[in-house]
Amino acid sequence: MTDYNELIFEISRPSRTAASLPESDVPSVNLSKKFPEQLIRKIPAELPEVSEPQLMRHYTTLSNKNFGVDNGFYPLGSCTMKYNPKINEDVARFPGFANIHPFQPTQTVQGALELMYELQEDLKIITGMGAVSLQPAAGAQGEWTGLMIMKLFHKQNGEDQKRTKILVPDSAHGTNPSSAFIAGFEVVEIPSNASGTVDLTALKKQLGTDIAGLMLTNPNTLGLFEKDIEEIVKLIHGIGGLVYYDGANLNAILGKTTPAMMGFDIVHLNLHKTFSTPHGGGGPGSGPVGVKGFLAPYLPVPRVEKQDNEYVLNSSYPLSLGRVKGYFGNFGVNIRAYTYIRTMGADGLKQVSESAVLHANYLRKLLAPYYILSHPQFCKHEFVLSGLKQKKLGVKAMDIAKRLLDFGYYAPTVYFPLIVEEAIMIEPTETETKETLDAFAKALIAIAKEVEETPTIVLEAPHKTSVRRIDEVRAARKLLVRYDKSEHKE
Amino acid sequence: MNEKEMERYYTEEHEWVMPIGDEKVRIGITDYAAKALGDVVYVELPETASHVSPGDEIGTVESTKSASVIFAPISGKILSVNEELEDAPELVNEGPLNEGWMTEVQLSDPSELADLLTQEEYTQLVEKLEDEEDNEEE
Amino acid sequence: MGNSFRYLPDTPKDREEMLATLAVSSLSELFADIPDHLQLKEPLAIPAALHEFALEKKLRKMANKNKDSKEYVFFLGAGTYDHYIPSTVDHVLSRSEFYTAYTPYQAEASQGELQALFEFQTMICELTGMDAANSSLYDGFTALGEAATLAVRSTKRKNIIVSKGVHPQGREVLKTVSVGFNYHVIEVKLAGDTTDLIELKKLIDQETAAVIIQYPNFFGSIEDLTKIKALAELNQALFIVSANPLALALLEAPGNLGADIVVGDTQPLGLSMSYGGPHCGYFAVKKKDIRKIPGRIVGQSLDKEGKRGFVLTLQTREQHIKREKATSNMSSNQALNALASAVFMSALGKKGLRQMAQLNIDKADYMANSLNEKGFSVNNQAPFFNEFVVELPFSIQQTNNVLLEQKIIGGYNLEKEYGLKNHMLVAVTEQRTKEEIDAFIAVLEGMIK
């Protein structure tokens, strides 16, 4: 089975099919009579022609070459690869949720609107914010939405022309500066201090009336809580800026504190991280945005509201930034998050963060003798190791990551955050057992030994995956991004 | 390389600038830079006929995991670019000082060359950097 | 610690042992870095947790309040359609090796996903007639916004001309995006049911970064791309086509008609309507713009033993490397939906997709003819795919209310966005039978009597 290495185009044979379509019960239109000649397709698209059993075997074999959370431990830092509950999947497939149209009259989709409304209410409570929009499709779109709200707020005060800069710490996710740029801001990077948090002195130097706001992840990407958060917020507010909370790491603080308590004005959440919706191999996600009450008028429209006992869509917000995405966001993803929140309740969510933080600290402690820790203090839900000790022996963080695949684990995030050399970023999440954490630590310790004794085995890893290490340089130099019969001939 | 080839000038950003006569120069990146970048997979070059001043971005050199900006070391007009790099970016690794060159520029102020590093100064800079790296690994 | 939760495995003993390893006496020590006055003292005031079966019941009740396409007959389209989805699609999607995986950064442990996305890219290229496609974006409207951004950045021009035949929500998203990039979105009106080419010719100039056309357009009509391309070309403006990928089975590929960028949504290809999301944007370009594509791209390569393998390529374009200089800020995409569409296209295949598209044309044609015969006037002058505009002698809201009583979800009301009173945009997919179409028309006739 593992030898199967065919593309679906290569197993295709003319006249096979895996679908069944009815004969037409109405007269057939002769295309050449109805359409102008130049708009009729001459050469059919070369789509594969396979039977249903072939189709299922092809994709099942592909799935066997793929590693998900259900296959094993996924310690990917900053990605919160927790278990994806099965009831969530069932609920999202209920016909009443899966087979409804975004333009149906609202009285025919009261259940869908109710779910969205209740999810908004839950997220308001969890973040402490005054209003929430579920429209953004994922984290980056949420960030951009939040930044556009900032822009509109300053515009309303007649200050959008002068407040052109966004402060972003150097430990931030790459999407932060990128989203700020796309929202039309200039990005000013703030360095971290020796203890891994925002350097207040450096921050103060940048303060001025040209600052629109600051974006911050707390705990940050080093897994450290920005304990000066109140002072940071005070400084930014003091110069008339707004403070943005990147919710990527919310899994550390559920039920323990809220972005609102810390003083943040705007927050986005990643439902596909904190609220257990599956990552789907890259998406779909969902990136709701929450704001303090004074910013609510700027949220995207339409907004889902409750009037008397009816749920409605309201677009009459003249100050709104408009629409950021089609329809109402990734509803199917939001259903899963809602189901999760109802499964956990307040007590459960708090335990999520407590266990996530306990697991990260425990694993960190087990690994400390073998790898350099980025910082000495307790971490929150994730931590960063440096592979510098191993690099001196000629083995890079990437090699260690690849070797972990042989032990039956996915790899941690490597080379991020950028401020730690040879970074290995580990987020164990709350859904792993202590046994798994112990076994994983053992594997990483074994690899540290291999680096000293038999480095070749690490350098040439992985050995047990469906393919050996892929030549990325070749992929980039000899770009082949689609199947082409002629180019694929042996 | 013709007879008139002169000694090269360098920048702290690890570029070389070589006068090729008639107030024209050829520009590329140094051996040190090519090694630091790793396997080059793509080179973005400037548009010919455009005017550049010191510090302007004139291109990008990409490996699979990084993208490094090339800054104009001098002012002038872009005369030509090394089109071979489009299909063979590996030339930057194979011969950064020769077939891996990037662009040729008509100088608008030849006196600017004096602001650049000499061969000797650049060699010292690289030695210093290499020493620092060695120390880090101790 | 209170209740035990089924996703949380720590036993009291586990917890004790871990705390002991950390040499702390309680969990609160691990949270001591959060200033005490910032710590919540009360539980979150969200509703109480529910057991699995109670929750299932509650949610089923909620779902049942919605009128769905398994029970109701849908003539509603306008960008989202009730199409046939072969059973195989959901079976593949339900493989948790796929849906519980992350973005395939570790290629060796993600070959299945990578290959499936490579195949998806190929299928999109085939349908659109383009050289390269990414592995998906959030949705068709976001893809439209990204296409405009690409055009503005690469032409260094400031105006985007968009036809009013483009989906109203697509144009809304475009306007939101344009604020950040500081470019202008200029709308060109329709002449009847297609883009007003005389007006378009007047608007295009040396400041036009791109012209955006929808194919078929929002009214279902098929725009003549050749004429629009000729106008765009005169001013070296890029030509962006937003296309329904199902229609492309029978319509000439935009890539063969001069499109520089083709975008759209693959919802018609195997994705449930799901109240508007998640759907799946696609984005395809010609070779010259391959390095400007937003989002992730899978490339083919070899492993160290010379075996074919796949890997994310051209990653330097992306936000995690170029940060603020990236082609786009996006990180997540809609990989699982791209997989669904790939399975769908594989299931239908070369002939099946054409057959399905033909059924759409046939049924829409039949319905339009029937309406005309009964004295309701269908407005489209240009040929249309599976949607058309019908003018009724009553308000659309009233019509839809009457249809609803017969378990029919009527079409889209064009009054708000186009000022067309009593005009309904009707979608007729392969799902609609002759009986259903006749029943719809019978309701209209009944309203006259």
Your description of this structure?
- The complex is a heterotrimer of chains A (490), B (138) and C (449).
- With 490 residues, chain A is of the alpha/beta class.
- Chain A has two domains: 88-343, 3-Layer(aba) Sandwich (Aspartate Aminotransferase, domain 2), CATH 3.40.640; 352-474, Aspartate Aminotransferase, domain 1, CATH 3.90.1150.10.
- Chain A is 37% helix and 11% strand.
- Chain A contains 18 helices and 13 strands.
- The longest helix of chain A is centred in the last third of the chain and has 37 residues, at 331-367.
- Chain B has one domain (9-130): RNA polymerase II/Efflux pump adaptor protein, barrel-sandwich hybrid domain (OB fold (Dihydrolipoamide Acetyltransferase, E2P)), CATH 2.40.50.
- Chain B is built from four helices and nine strands, in the order βββαβββββααβα.
- Chain B has helices at residues 31-37, 84-87, 91-94, 119-137; strands at 9-10, 15-21, 24-29, 42-44, 51-52, 57-62, 67-71, 76-81, 103-107.
- Chain B has a six-stranded antiparallel sheet with strand order 1-2-3-9-8-5. A three-stranded antiparallel sheet of chain B has the order 4-6-7, with no helix packed on it.
- Residues 1-5 of chain B have low confidence and may be disordered.
- Chain C is globular and about 85 Å long.
- Chain C has helices at 12-21, 52-64, 87-93, 96-99, 111-128, 140-155, 168-181, 197-203, 225-234, 319-322, 335-373, 396-405, 415-418, 434-448, and strands at 73-74, 132-133, 159-163, 184-188, 190-191, 194-195, 208-215, 238-243, 261-265, 281-285, 297-302, 308-313, 377-378, 387-391, 408-409, 412-413, 423-427.
- Chain C contains 14 helices and 17 strands.
- Chains A and C meet through helix 2, helix 3, helix 4, helix 5 and helix 6 of A and helix 1, helix 2, helix 3, helix 4 and helix 5 of C.
Précis, in short:
With 490 residues, chain A is α/β, with parallel strands linked by helices. In chain A, 37% of the residues lie in helices and 11% in strands.
Please write out the topology.
The complex is a heterotrimer of chains A (490), B (138) and C (449).
Chain A: H1 31-34, H2 52-64, H3 86-92, H4 95-98, H5 110-127, E1 131-133, H6 139-156, E2 165-169, H7 175-182, E3 186-190, H8 200-206, E4 211-217, H9 229-238, E5 242-247, H10 259-262, E6 266-269, H11 271-274, E7 289-291, E8 303-307, E9 310-314, H12 331-367, E10 372-373, E11 383-386, H13 388-391, H14 397-406, E12 413-414, E13 423-426, H15 434-453, H16 455-459, H17 472-477, H18 485-488
Parallel strand pairs in A: 2-3, 2-4, 4-5, 5-6
Antiparallel strand pairs in A: 1-7, 6-7, 8-9, 10-11, 11-13, 12-13
Helix pairs in contact in A: 3-12, 5-12, 6-7, 12-15
Chain B: E1 9-10, E2 15-21, E3 24-29, H1 31-37, E4 42-44, E5 51-52, E6 57-62, E7 67-71, E8 76-81, H2 84-87, H3 91-94, E9 103-107, H4 119-137
Antiparallel strand pairs in B: 1-2, 2-3, 3-9, 4-6, 5-8, 6-7, 8-9
Chain C: H1 12-21, H2 52-64, E1 73-74, H3 87-93, H4 96-99, H5 111-128, E2 132-133, H6 140-155, E3 159-163, H7 168-181, E4 184-188, E5 190-191, E6 194-195, H8 197-203, E7 208-215, H9 225-234, E8 238-243, E9 261-265, E10 281-285, E11 297-302, E12 308-313, H10 319-322, H11 335-373, E13 377-378, E14 387-391, H12 396-405, E15 408-409, E16 412-413, H13 415-418, E17 423-427, H14 434-448
Helix pairs in contact in C: 3-11, 5-11, 6-7, 11-14
